[in-house]
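Appendix C reproduces, verbatim, an entry submitted by the partner laboratory led by Prof. M.T., so that reviewers can inspect both the input and the predicted structure.
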Amino acid sequence: MKAIKIVCLSIFSCIGFLFAENYLIEGGQESKIQYRLIQSVHPPNSVRSLTLSYVIPESFTSPTYSQRIENFQMIFSTPPDQKEEKRDIRGNPVLKAVWESPPPSLKVTMAFYAFNKTSLEPLDSHALYPLGSLPSEILVYLKATSQVQSDHPEIQTQAKALIQGVKTEFDAVQRILSWVVDHVRYVSPSSQYDALYTLHTGKGNCQNFSHLACAFLRAVGIPTRIVNGVTLNQPYSVKTREGEFSFRFGQGRHSWIEVYFPDLEWVPFDPQQTELFVSNRFIRIEVGMDNAETIQDGLIRWKESKNSRTQMAFEEHIEADFESDRVQLAMEKQNYGPQNMLLCPPVRASFQPILPVPPPSPPVSPIPVERLMYTEPCLFGNLDFPRRVNFLMTRGPAQKAGEDQFQMQKNFLVETAEYVTTQLRQYAQVFIVEKPLKLCKVGLALHLFGGDGQLWIELFHDRNGKPGKLIATSDFFNTNQLFKTQGYDWIDFSFDSNPPILAPGKYWIALGFTGSPIVNWFYTYGKPVGPVDGTRYKGVYDADWSGALAYEFNYRIMGYIPKEE
């Protein structure tokens, strides 16, 4: 058995990678978190009965992640008429509260302490592939479902091709996770959430990532279960040779997976970005076969008077106070692996590394870019985000569950945004020009919360993967000119007065500001469009953009390119 640090490769050497973005990560996190989920429900007069369901989070231990739950409380502003607690078919402890004549306003608070720990020490797994006999309670997690179509021919064919020739379970798992990381782009909300849709479209939210990874793994005989929980928006930084890499999640519902190893048991994976672990910013709540089954936590059901059709008003808010937080993590980039970022702790297993293929050189135009005729409209960027959404009220629509009976399930739509007008930091996003471009406008997905000041865009050349020489500055926006929409929307900054001509290559946009505006910039998990290190920050008084971010801001580039003959 050959000892290795990290293995996250594709089986198809003919495909290759533009860059290797595998990172070995070591160290740990340990936190004491005071957690509160606060729900406000406002049943209309026509509602005759109301049932709220919750899954009580339990302590959990794995080789890389553990949580210990203490002082659990459920606080009801109006006590329920009935309260029942029992375990469902997957062992989740479900609490159901029923009001026969619900009040017009009801507030429910789930509160507890979570002692969370992520430990990224070297792992040993000697599990061979294919797996041998497994316990009956584990075998159920090989079955296909409507959301995890592991028995579909397309899923079967792709999964078996990915693991051709593997000898160990870890080798099979890391090949599948690497493929998912490179071939699925994060988009929220998604039109559908099942594995087959995700395979066909190559996009989706956390449910899509989890369902596709789960389908591939079950298709080749590796037990995998879906986990539902919550991510917390407490940021943390990881040391690298180049500086630091900062990670941050939206505060809200999330879906990931756990994979069964005979010698390690259940080990968490977040198919969007991590292998063999999740951060201690995760609160683990519910497990099941797929996200169509893991619906008990946060489920609202009610019965209305006959022929009544009224709207159920609902709000949900999550609070998390980190009373203690120790983070000691470092990561090192490897020279093999997927194009998109994937983090993994040290692992001892066997593998056959496949090295990345160098990117092709960009074409060179025989005519200077200044002399070209720019007549063809052009629009590109990281364009998909939930526009004009109130993230406190994202439930619905109601689903019919019987005669005059309805229900609403939790959703996974979370606000992922950075406060970018702080006096301490400035943020920049890379974009890549593939054809000569006359730049006219740059749009950012922003939300103005208040404050007075001015905003503008600075355009930079790239210098060694960071913003370099300043090229141009957009027109200025006074914040009182911005239309205060509900949620996030495009704010377009104009370069029309003197549009720069850009040759093919990498460029950076940075948000500039004066005064005291309070503005958030929406971001997308992972890197849907640009390179892994293509989102950066620095102190406003610093010269070097030494900080990198693990996500990509939403932006759009508008202008003209030469018309092709």
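The chain has three domains: 22-27+122-293+331-348, 29-118+296-324, 369-392+413-562. Additional entries are available on request from the coordinating office.
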